[in-house]
Structure formats: structure tokens, C-alpha cells
Amino acid sequence: MQNQNQTFNLKESIEFLLNNFKVERYVYLSVTLLSIILLLIIAVILFLSKDYKSIFIMLGPTGLITLVFSRVLKMWSDCIELIKIYITK
């Protein structure tokens, strides 16, 4: 059993969190980039064809972008919470 009075190392804790979220960050970044590319392609097609019904196709990628950004912000919020806990001790 480890000593309960070990000092809390903030840098190691944040690096641990970032390493554990590494795959998740890459997945979210990839999905975001693909969604933005799809959104730009759809916008160009809409502009060139003047088919305004296509605007509904843009709702999927924009919702996905919003979801992915919210998850990335949650990850950083968790890191900030860890810092807050450390500072208040």
C-alpha cells in the first residue's frame, strides 16, 4: 500500500490526463476536420447550384462540430478542475 501522504504533483497529473485522453483528442480532431471539410463542400455546392433545399444537409455537420467541440472543452474543464483542487489545498 502506498503512502497516503504523498505530495500531489500537478504537472504529472495533467500529463497523465492528457496522455489518457490522447486517442480521444485525435478522434475528436479528425471528426471535426472531416465535418468542416464536408460543410465547406456542401456550402460550395449550394452556392453553385442555387438549390436552397440543400441547406438542411448542413445541419448534420454543424451539429457534429458542436458536439465534438463540447467534448474537447469538457476534457479541458476536467484539467482546470484538477488545477483548482490543487490550488485550494
Structural class by SSE content: mainly alpha
State the shape.
Answer: elongated
Query: What's the Cα radius of gyration?
Result: 20 Å
Distance between the termini: 23 Å
The largest sheet, given as strand count, sense and whether it forms a barrel, is: none
Order of helices and strands: HHH
**What's the rounded overall pLDDT mean?**
76
Strand proportion, as a percent range, falls in: under 5%
Total of DSSP H or I helical runs spanning 4+ residues? 3
Helix content percent band: over 70%
Characterise the protein shown here:
The protein has helices at about 10-20, 20-50, 60-89. The protein has about 90 residues and is mainly alpha-helical.
Write the layout of secondary structure elements.
Blueprint (H helix, E strand, L loop, with lengths): L9 H11 L1 H28 L9 H30 L1
Helix pairs in contact: 1-3, 2-3
Which short descriptors sum up this protein?
mainly alpha
Summarize the structure.
The protein is mostly helical and 89 residues long.
